[in-house]
Amino acid sequence: MVYSNLQIFIVELVGTFILVVFATGSIVLDAEMFNNELGIPFAAVAPFIALLIGVYSFGKVSLAHFNPAVTIGYYITGHIKKIQVVYYFAAEIIGAILGSLFVLSIIGDKADLGANAPNFDFSMLLIFPVEVLASAMLMGVIFYVVYTKGLRGFSGVAIGGIVGLDILFLAFISGASMNPARALAPALLSGMMDNLWLYWSAPFVGTMIAAFAFRGKFISQRMREAESWKINKYFIK
């Protein structure tokens, strides 16, 4: 079934909203109610749950990007058209801002609304590549799921899982945003914009690396599917 750009816009907005509420809301909730005692493990589990919801609910409609860097990856591999990039970006940014507004209104305003921040105990020469790596691994897992046509029903577990693992093991270095929209919304509303350049550059670099690595595989897959379709059509006649 082919979905309209409006349908894609709506589900991407809702999915990004859910992701940002869980990803940033967990950090703010931890600061508001638990004095940051739950820490990174809690911040890692929350987006995992959000992506389980988003991928299984909306994956068939929009491929469940919820992330401008992922959208660029899908554009490079030919999964979406140029005009659709505009719909995706708009939905993701609006959804993220609405998510942060929800967190601010319902949960609180501590922890800079869950804005990402790198650990400056490390050099930027390490921080930037780590954020690139986290984003590339996320995009790689997403492409593997798409290439295998849903990873036998484990798509949400795989995608949510890699986000959770990236946060669990890499957030203490780079902040492990992997998502420019998720980084933008709390930074914009809290005024903590200093680190935004990192999360509007490194995730795109990471997803583009993965996209160019997988593009040939998807081209070959489409050629095989087209040839198979022609053969089947011939025998049906």
What does the model show?
This protein is mainly α. The chain has one domain (5-236): Up-down Bundle (Glycerol uptake facilitator protein). Helix content is 76%, strand content 0%. The chain has 9 helices and no strands.
- Enter the CATH topology name: Glycerol uptake facilitator protein
H/E element order:
HHHHHHHHH
Number of domains: 1
Output the radius of gyration.
Answer: 18 Å
Number of E strands: 0
Strand content: under 5%
Counting helices, strands and paired strands, the structural category is mainly alpha
N→C terminal distance: 24 Å
- The helical percent reads over 70%
- What's the average pLDDT? 95
Short description:
This protein has 237 residues and is mainly α. The protein is built from nine helices and no strands. The mean pLDDT is 95.
Main features:
237 residues, mainly alpha, Glycerol uptake facilitator protein, globular
Helix and strand topology:
Blueprint: H1 5-33, H2 39-62, H3 68-76, H4 82-106, H5 124-147, H6 155-174, H7 180-190, H8 196-199, H9 202-236
Helix pairs in contact: 1-2, 1-4, 1-7, 2-6, 3-4, 3-9, 4-7, 5-6, 5-9
